[in-house]
Design a protein that fits this description.
By secondary structure, the protein is α/β, with parallel strands linked by helices. The chain has 16 helices and twelve strands.
């Protein structure tokens, strides 16, 4: 998704400020816009000079998201865009695993991450060594890894997926005769996908697993891992119940990284892109998003005529590290470049290419 053309082409700081104010006055204080308009103007001017492109995840804070991003989207959209980019420099305003993905898909390009340590609790829950041990335990079983993983995991993976196409990937493998699939690392996404596809899921590495949980006892089964997103695991069914008491007509949207109980209690579940499309396309009295809270602000800026309940206060501490200040410094200094071993990138690339083939 491309946006912000007028702001990016503004001829002065003053024009940048006026354009940002027109879009962001509902979500960003004016004193902050004054400061950030100057940063945005400098970034937009410099990236043209250096043939750089800025990719921004939907969780970026509004002043950055709506002023300097050339492309915005979820991890699947941005992976596709990064695979097709011909820019000399790719600046990824997201977290490290996303920037790694861009580097794997563009090994000859310079890929920059504005923050030195923009991690992910979910990606950190699994290592390449963990995957190798699972493959030794379940030989021949294909490994599907959520794109929210680091390069060492992708290198041990048969096919990556995102929350947008996870069910399609599992169905694709099952239709080709794979009755067992390892799905890593998100516990809640795995449970939600298993429910959508209609097959059971086991977590064989859990210390309470019983002998009856042996995959051999099931005709078809997914094998999961117990990683979680530190943002989405905070949402509870009780939150939904309390909101509905106050606003009975609210439409609640939950990310599939939320627990199955939360997803089932919500009105809609989908990737960040699908959430954005839902609010844009479906008329409702008001909406509440159960995901990283900056995305709600970004949707408000794009849909000023729609009412978004501002009850979400869960900010991803890692996404929050990406600022306009650090984006400018990264672009000026080529700071925090992503570098990965060539062999690792080649092996990881195969799992990403297979993901991109399944739309």
């Amino acid at each position: 998704m491309t946006k912000n053309t007028a702001i990016q082409n503004a001829a002065s700081i003053e024009e940048t400020y006026e354009l940002m104010k027109a879009r962001l006055s509902r979500v960003v204080p004016d004193f902050e816009l004054v400061h950030k308009a100057e940063l945005a103007f400098k970034i937009n001017r410099l990236k043209r000079h250096k043939n750089a492109v800025i990719l921004a995840h939907n969780y970026m804070e509004p002043a950055l998201y709506h002023s300097v991003s050339d492309y915005m989207g979820d991890s699947f959209e941005l992976a596709k865009i990064s695979a097709e980019s011909d820019a000399d420099i790719i600046i990824f305003c997201g977290v490290r695993f996303m920037a790694e993905t861009a580097k794997i898909l563009n090994p000859t390009r310079t890929v920059l991450l504005p923050a030195e340590k923009a991690g992910c609790s979910l990606a950190a829950s699994l290592t390449g060594d963990d995957v190798r041990k699972l493959k030794a335990r379940f030989p021949g079983v294909p490994v599907v890894s959520y794109v929210n993983t680091y390069a060492d995991v992708k290198a041990e993976t048969d096919i990556c997926c995102t929350s947008s196409n996870a069910a399609k990937v599992i169905t694709h493998l099952m239709e080709r005769g794979h009755d067992r699939v390892i799905f890593l690392p998100d516990e809640y996404l795995a449970k939600n996908v298993a429910a959508e596809v209609g097959i059971p899921i086991l977590f064989p590495s859990h210390p309470t697993s019983r002998k009856t949980d042996d995959p051999a006892n099931f005709e078809r089964v997914m094998l999961g891992w117990e990683g979680r997103c530190e943002v989405h695991e905070q949402f509870m069914v009780e939150d939904i119940e309390n909101v509905r008491k106050q606003f009975p007509d609210v439409v609640i949207l939950a990310h599939p990284e939320c627990s199955p109980e939360v997803v089932n209690a919500a009105d809609f579940s989908g990737s960040t892109r699908r959430m954005i499309e839902y609010v844009r396309d479906v008329d409702a009295p008001r909406y509440l998003l159960l995901t990283e809270c900056s995305m709600g602000d970004n949707i408000v800026a794009e849909n000023p005529h729609k009412e978004m309940l501002r009850l979400c206060s869960v900010r991803c501490p890692h996404m929050n590290l990406i600022t306009l200040e650090d984006t400018l410094a990264s672009l000026e200094q080529n700071r925090f470049e992503i570098n990965l071993p060539e062999d690792l990138m080649n092996r990881a690339r195969a799992s990403l290419d297979r993901m991109l083939e399944i739309r």
